[in-house]
Amino acid sequence: MRLGVHINRFDHSGGGPALGAELAAAGRAAEVAGVSWLSVMDHYFQMEFNGGAEAPMLEAYTTLGYLAGQTSTVQLGALVTGVTYRHPGLLAKIATSLDVLSGGRATLGIGAAWYGREHEGLGVAFPPLAERFERLEEALRVCLQMWDPDDNGPFEGKHYRLAETLCVPAPVSAPRPEIMIGGGGEKKTLRLVARYGDACNLFTTSPDEVRHKLDVLRAHCDTEGRDYDTIRKTVAYSGEAVNEGDLDAATRDIEGYTGLGIDTVILSPRLGETSGWMESFVAPAVQRLAGLD
Predict the structure, then answer these.
(1) For residue 210, what are the contacts with CB-CB under 8 A and spacing of at least 6?
(2) Residue 126 pLDDT
(3) Mean pLDDT of 150-167
(4) Predicted confidence (pLDDT) per residue in 20-48, tens digit
(5) What is the Rg, in whole angstroms, of the alpha carbon atoms belonging to the chain?
(6) Is there a smaller number of Cβ atoms within 10 Å at the N or the C end of the chain?
(7) Which residues contact 158 (CB under 8 A, 6 or more apart)?
């Protein structure tokens, strides 16, 4: 197993002026530790269970661009972008820009969106769930067409219409940036993974539950004629052992997910300052997980 880190809080003791230096230090420390993936949330407001809307929250792709300039090897992405946050043509351009400027290290993480308060707060439309999934599928198709060098023509969907799907410069990643679809919904989300995704991201609810989700994904792959083994499987782990720095307990938890074909475990600490934690906890965790599969 490889190790990733998801930075999801920005409540630094030094406030906003300290965040740039802290994120730069965290990015450099992550690479020294051997981390393969570094992500941030894509939200307008901080989530209620993680400090609430009044807590600090940075815009995701600005932050990822900054991290790209501070790193050289780690894969970068949002975990995950809500389909309602940006028009898909613009989203494809943003992800492409990150990919070009990072030297081919961008992943497009995307999902159906769920946080109603931030949409209402900033005046962004938040359609019903069924429509959000329709938009998600169309957005995936738009991005794939934007990244197809042989198809710069129009896109005509139910919710999105583009006269041209030009994307210049093209992504550096070959053949295009990775698409990671977040969520474990069995009827729609995992079907979209099988149809369009290069990677999935599931929560570590329990090994049995993750095994079941992967079985559902495999069945969708069979239906779609997709090779299940070509999809990178990732899980997000936010157990208290991560926040408490208890590496032994975290390793015991994660060991339960061995044998499921998980490529990357993404640690999600609820910490506003992660650079020191990268050195003290993440570096030895990388070594521990390298022996698991």
Answers:
(1) 202, 204, 235, 257, 260, 262
(2) 98
(3) 97
(4) 999 999 999 999 999 999 999 999 999 99
(5) 18
(6) C
(7) 134, 138
Task: Write down the residue that tokens 């070594």 correspond to.
Answer: 287
Taking a C-beta distance cutoff of 8 angstroms, is the pair 39, 76 a contact? yes
Prior bond of 80 cis (ω within 30°): yes
Percent of the chain clearing pLDDT 70 (strictly above): 100
DSSP 3-state of 29: helix
- pLDDT exceeds 90 at position 293: no
- The string of pLDDT tens digits covering residues 192-209 is 999 999 999 999 999 999
User: Which 8-state DSSP code applies to residue 279?
Assistant: I
**Residue 7's beta-bridge partner residues?**
40
Q: Secondary structure of 196-207 in the HEC alphabet?
A: HCCEEEEECCCH
d(CA 22, CA 138) in angstroms, rounded, equals 37
- Residue reference for tokens 């989700």: 213
For residue 160, which phi and psi values (nearest 5 degrees)? -130, 135
Is residue 290 over pLDDT 90? no
Contact 265, 36 (CB under 8 A): no
pTM, two decimal places: 0.96
Terminal-to-terminal C-alpha distance of the chain: 5
Pairing of strands 81-82, 37-40: unpaired
Give, as one character, the DSSP assignment of residue 230. G
Residue linked to tokens 């990150």? 98
- Encoded tokens for 226: 């997709």
- Quote the CA–CA distance of 172 and 206 in Å, as a whole number: 37
- How far apart CA 281 and CA 269 sit, in angstroms, is 11
Spatial CA neighbour of 143 closest among 23, 12, 151? 151
Kindly report the three-state secondary structure assignment for every residue of 104-150: CCEEEEEECCCCHHHHHHHCCCCCCHHHHHHHHHHHHHHHHHHCCCC
pLDDT score recorded for residue 291: 80
